[in-house]
Amino acid sequence: MIQFQLAQKSTKPAKIAVLGQSGAGKTLASLLLAKGLTNKGKVLVFDTENGRASLKEGHPLLEGWQFYHYPIAPEKASGKVALEVVQEAVAQSFDCVIIDSCSHLWDHVIETKEKLGGSWTYWAAAKEPYYTFIRKGVISSPIHIILTLRTEIKYEQQVNETSGKKEVVKLGLSPVAEKNLQYEIDFVFNIIDRFHRTLCEKQEGDLFSTTTPFVIEESHGVLISQWLKSGAVDPVLEKKRLFINRIKELISNIEDESKYISIVPDVSLLEDMTIEELTSIGKQLKSL
Question: What is the DSSP-derived secondary structure letter of residue 260?
């Protein structure tokens, strides 16, 4: 007889994707998430971006914490290599691996298919190492995995209903990755502009705003860790985070810095303020 048990929430590692165009700030955002997620633990960046992740070492927002770095040339990045890196990181007791950028793994799939002949019949062979990495290196990995994904403008050929002629239509930004990858991810963050404002497009739980942009911080990684461990988020911490994000949004919409500098001389000080103080600041900014 099959024995069934009542469901219980168990601790599991997070699977996160950070999307954005080139230069959007995906690497720093991923490091901040990893820093909070692991409580300043042991984090490895598998860097396929010509070693650029190393430039984040010593960044003020990463003060008091260092990460490990494994750079590789973009053309050598593949699902097979990524899986080997993750498995070795697990063996060496890392808490989290950041794949920066996972888009290069998909680029490798496209290039492999072209080398094999370019026909759709070669898709299965070209994609197998990539799918194996997603299954074993991401979904089944016993540690936290963060993937950065480059977004690019996607076009599609469609028939114009009026003229009946085919025309190229701009569909918007789309991640360079296998189309179903995001279904395997717990949290998907999309950095939408050069000010690093972000929207959470997918999440387990109800931790982040899906409509009000925010800038990714270490505290967001802490929230995910807290939710994974207990299923509950400190309501005071969550309320403070929402107030702070709202204040930062208000500031970003004020072009003249002199108008708000006396109210918020340093945004880093917001973290140490009480909810009452944050409420007062929000009201003052709204009145400007």
Answer: T
pLDDT at 273: 85
Which residues is 191 bridged to in the sheet? Answer: 198
With a cut of 80, say whether residue 274 has pLDDT above it.
yes
Strand locations in the chain, DSSP E?
15-20, 43-47, 68-71, 96-100, 144-159, 166-175, 187-191, 197-202, 214-215
Pairing between β-strand 187-191 and β-strand 197-202 as defined by DSSP bridges: antiparallel
Write down the mean pLDDT value for the chain.
87
The model's pLDDT over 20-77, given as tens digits with 9 standing for 90+, comes to 999 899 999 999 999 999 999 999 999 999 999 999 999 999 999 999 999 999 999 9
Given a contact cutoff of 8 angstroms between Cβ atoms, the answer to whether 281 and 272 are in contact is no
Tally of CA atoms within 13 A in the half-sphere of 207 that contains its CB: 26
Q: Are strands 187-191 and 166-175 parallel, antiparallel or unpaired?
A: unpaired
> 113 — phi, psi (to 5°)?
-60, -40
Q: To which residue do tokens 């960044």 refer?
A: 59
Our separate counts of H helices and E strands in the chain read: 7, 9
Q: Domains along the chain? A: 15-233 (3.40.50), 236-286 (no CATH)
Q: Is the dihedral of CA 279, 285, 286, 288 positive or negative?
A: positive
Compute the distance between CA of residue 186 and CA of residue 227 in angstroms, rounded to an integer: 12
